[in-house]
Amino acid sequence: MPHFSIYSLGLLLLIASVVAMLSRRLRLPYSVGLVIAGIGLALLPKTVELPLTRDLIFNIFLPPLVFEAALQLKWPAFSRELPLTLGLAFPGVVIAAACVAAGMHYTVGWAWPGAALFGVLIAATDPVSVIAAFREMNVAPRLSMIVESESLLNDGAAAVGFSLIAAIAAGASMTPLAIAGSLLFTVAGGVICGLAVAGAVLLLAWRTEDHLVEITLTTIAAYGSFLTAEHFHMSGVLASLTAGLLVGNVGWMRAISEGGRTHLLAFWEYAAFLANSLVFILIGSNEARQPILPMAGAAAVAVALVLLGRALAVYPLAALFARSRTRIDARYQHVLVWGGLRGALALALALALPFNLAERQEILVVSFAVVAFSIFVQGLTMPWLIRRLGLLRAM
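^ that's the sequence the OP posted. Answer follows.
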């Protein structure tokens, strides 16, 4: 009988390490290698059970991934691009989700509740693979900043939108005013929660120069902000994003010691590596078990609609900023469209679909198919696209 144990965890860590070394040597995206390894594990006759659940992604993997990414963002650059990235994230999610939902309803025949839920969950982008390629290829800093910050905000927007649509699909009667109030509560509450938890942690960290204590306190900031916000039905992603921004900017001034900073960054780099490794192996393992072939037609339609929705979100919204100081090069826009990969959050939301939803199983399978396409096709072709567009920095 398959089982999961400490030996299984050791096996996964060994596989992640080998894949990391091979990926670097073969110049392949690390996430692609991990998914392939996960598929290989699933196809073995005797292997461990590798469950992928909404709680595992939300409560274990997402907090360190979001916190570590935010920790690296510098507030001056982040705030300078904020009008643009907020526009791409929040209205962008609405546009992309509406395009996908309408397309799946009219072409595949899904009922509006299922189509709408799929539309918003699949609008959540994952910057992990693209950012890793950017760092390897020495891409322009502004492009990396826009892609990463928009993806982080996009994740928060998609999670908030999913909660609202799920409530409406469950029968909750919500007026436009009530929807606006709920949206404001979820978003603002997540930001306030992140500020409160991280602020309290920094007040404690200010009283010590022990790097081990500082690492422990930032771990509390990452998980504490995320889980507290989720407990009160606020946005955990935005809470952890805010906490990471606060620690990575205000914390460096006085609260985190000069000696502890190097240790802290190294710890969070490893935590993100660990979370990414496990989540992509689990995606691959569960991908292999999905009955994708019977759903190939719906999956192909979904992939086309996801790409169309992303294009409809990015190009018109970017055009609104064409005469402002935050205007972005057309080449950057192409990267934003093709680099809008789907990953862990989209699958976490798909796994959280109500069990009484008629299309639940179909949505789950199609979500895995879209994630597989984005990782293997978009992820593998991103380095080529970057070189083709001439976006490499001169050394």
